[in-house]
Amino acid sequence: MTNIRSTLATVWRIAVPYFKSEDRRMGRILLATVVVIELAVVGLAVLFNRWNNVFYNALQERDYNVFAYQLGYFCVLAAIFIALKVYQLYLNQWLQIRWRRWMTERYLGEWLHDSNHYQMQLQGDAADNPDQRIAEDTQMFVERTLLLGIGLLNSVVTLASFVVILWGLSNEAPLHVFGQDVPIPGYLVWGALIYATIGTALTHWIGSPLADLNFRQQRFEADFRFNLVRARENSEQIALLRGETAERGKLSSRFGLVADNFMRIMSRTKKLTAFTASYSQASIIFPYILVAPAYFAQRVQLGGLMQTASAFNSVQDSLSFFVTAYRTLAEWQSVVARLDGFEASIRNATAQRANPGISRVVAQSGDAIGLDDLELTLPAGQPLMRADDFRISGKQRTLIAGPSGSGKSTLFRAIAGIWPFGSGAIAIPAGATIMMLPQRPYFPVGELHAAIVYPSETAAFSAAQVAEVVKDVGLPALADRLGEHGHWNRTLSLGEQQRLGVARALLHAPNYLFLDEATASLDEPSEAALYRLLDQKLPDTTIVSIGHRSTLNAFHDRDAVLGRSGDSFTLQDKVRTVAPAQS
């Protein structure tokens, strides 16, 4: 019971915000319309139930006039029923897509807000495969919530409508045992209740493991897809290493988890289906068994028998909602749990960002980035590096070196404001713009023009401006392909991508430019040409580079090194023996 209350509370927390959002008016109208139509459908079911009595009595009495009239009446009811169901489906789907669009936009906004997506990866939160949460689970949540909600409403209203009818029919068709009437008020209602209660209890006992199995199945499926995508994106490296056999083994192992868990679902579903199918078939004949003795004793006509059976099945179906919807409920519960974990991960990332160990302050004067008593740690708390009273002055060119794993790239992340683990303060000059160029640049799929100017809008830079910088960085052949669509991280070599990364920096002209081995895939002459280009085009930009080539010294006027200090590293200035020769 506690688990049910917890799930319902989570559903309320996830679902209600849409109906309070800017789209609340249309959402409420659509939901209210769908509900009203469902109530009308239940009303028609009551009319169909009464029609059963009259129609089958006409058959028994061979009354052709009543028979013909009831056929026409049935056609009218059926036409209304069809129209209601068609428009209910249409409006339900309209509500689904509006609700899903709002949830998708909300989750995208929260996930991509202020590097939450990166924080969630660092923290190793339970929201594995956020793409699945946003793309698939929102769709399943909206669809299942409406399906189950409307289904439950139908069951409650149908029960309220037909239980009165069935109670009255219990008096018209009394329980007849061994030639005697047994006066049990509402015995048909009690029979339906007992039948449904037993069925519900057995269904839950058989099917309860399905919720957890479905949760794990979605996770295993997503992990398998993720590894397939990784294999596709890294196909060149796999081919060069002749890693196909190893990769196939890894993928087969991942799929093995999918298949093994699916076999468990199959086994459990087989047992559940065997019971629910038996339950459903038995429920068809059960009311006839109860009423047939009274019919053969001529205590009730054929019409009364058929009406009673119809009313009994309506009540029994309503009471058996849990039985018939159990598999959907199990899937829905696992979807709710996944979305709850996703939202919790976003909240954790937001809380981490709101209370970081590292203070990020705005320097009201000066043009230097200051690192004051800065200590960076790994997410688990192990010390990584320190920087005490270290200044990166305006227009200065600083080259940072250090052994692998000493925290060079992590320092850049901290300056960018996306690494929260540690203590101390980072002071950023007021109004300063910062750009980071990683070793592997990111280019969104689409037009090359848009990929180069990212994250700015395409209109922020003209085609002529983009073409000029593309030529400047040594890629004249791409200047004529700016309108071409492509997956540029795949089609371009890493060296070409790094050149375009520099082109992006030239367009945006930031106050501070941090290059994390951003030219390491180029030969030394090409690297030197790009640094000379940066000096020429961005004379007022402060440049900080991470690199290991001695040839980079000529393009920097300051050296810093991360040296071993106990169990971590310390950032310090390094005295040069030879002054840089700018060229």
UniProtKB/TrEMBL annotation:
One of its GO terms (molecular function) is ATP hydrolysis activity. Keywords: ATP-binding, Membrane, Nucleotide-binding, Transmembrane, Transmembrane helix, Transport. The chain crosses the membrane at residues 29-51, 71-91, 146-167, 187-207, 272-296. Gene3D superfamilies: ABC transporter type 1, transmembrane domain, P-loop containing nucleotide triphosphate hydrolases. Its main location: membrane. Residues 29-331 form the ABC transmembrane type-1 domain. The keyword Membrane applies. PANTHER family: ATP-BINDING CASSETTE, SUB-FAMILY D MEMBER, LYSOSOMAL COBALAMIN TRANSPORTER ABCD4. The keyword 4Fe-4S does not apply. Involved in beta-(1-->2)glucan export. Transmembrane domains (TMD) form a pore in the inner membrane and the ATP-binding domain (NBD) is responsible for energy generation. PROSITE patterns: ABC_TM1F, ABC_TRANSPORTER_1, ABC_TRANSPORTER_2. This is ABC transporter-like. Belongs to the ABC transporter superfamily. It is a multi-pass membrane protein. GO terms for cellular component: plasma membrane. It is found in: Cell membrane. Residues 369-581 form the ABC transporter domain. It comes from the Bacteria. The lineage of its organism: Bacteria, Pseudomonadati, Pseudomonadota, Alphaproteobacteria, Hyphomicrobiales.
